[in-house]
Amino acid sequence: MGVYTFTVIDEASSVAPARLFEALCLDNHNVFPKVVPFIVKSVDFVEGDTTSVGCVKQMNFADGGPYKYMKTKINELDVDKYYAKYTNFEGDVLDNVLECVVYESSIESTGSGSHYKLVGHFHTKGDVVYTLEDAKMGLQSMQVSYKAVEEYLSNNPEIYA
C-alpha cells in the first residue's frame, strides 16, 4: 500500500474561522445538501447523531453524478483549534484503487478572516500509483463545495454568528 499526499484546498477567506469550521466540519450534514445540492443530495449519520470523534456519516451524492456515496469517520476533532481529521473509508469514490483517504482540515485566524487548508492522504491498494490527475474529479468537487460554502457564509453573516 502506498500513501500519496495532496493539498486539496489552501485558501484565504474573509469568513471568521469559527463560522467556517462550523459549516465545513461540524454541520456539513446540513450545509452541503443546502448549498451544493448538485453535488451532495443528503448526509446521514450511520453511527452517532452529531459530529464527534468516532461518528460515521454517509454522504449521498446527487443523482446523475459519477459517484453514489461515501462513508466518513471522524478521527480527531479540536473545536478550539479548528482542526478535524477524518477518513473516507467506503464508497464508489474510492474507485477500487484506494483503501481510504484521510483528510486533515485546519483553519487559522488571519485577523481579517481565516486561512483554510485541506490535505488529503490517499492510501492505495497494492502497488497502485495514485497521481493528482487521478484525484482531480473529487478534488474539484471539494473545491467547488468549499467556495459555495464560503460564499453562502459571506452572504449570510448571521449564520453561525
UniProtKB/TrEMBL annotation:
Keywords: Pathogenesis-related protein, Plant defense. GO terms for cellular component: cytoplasm; nucleus. SUPFAM superfamilies: Bet v1-like (SSF55961). Coiled coil: none annotated. One of its GO terms (biological process) is defense response. InterPro entries: Bet_v_I/MLP (IPR000916), Bet_v_I_allergen (IPR024949), Plant_def-hormone_signal (IPR050279), START-like_dom_sf (IPR023393). It comes from the Eukaryota. The keyword Phosphoprotein does not apply. Gene3D superfamilies: 3.30.530.20. One of its GO terms (molecular function) is protein phosphatase inhibitor activity. Residues 13-155 form the Bet v I/Major latex protein domain. Pfam families: Bet_v_1. Belongs to the BetVI family. This is Major allergen Mal d 1. It comes from Spinacia oleracea.
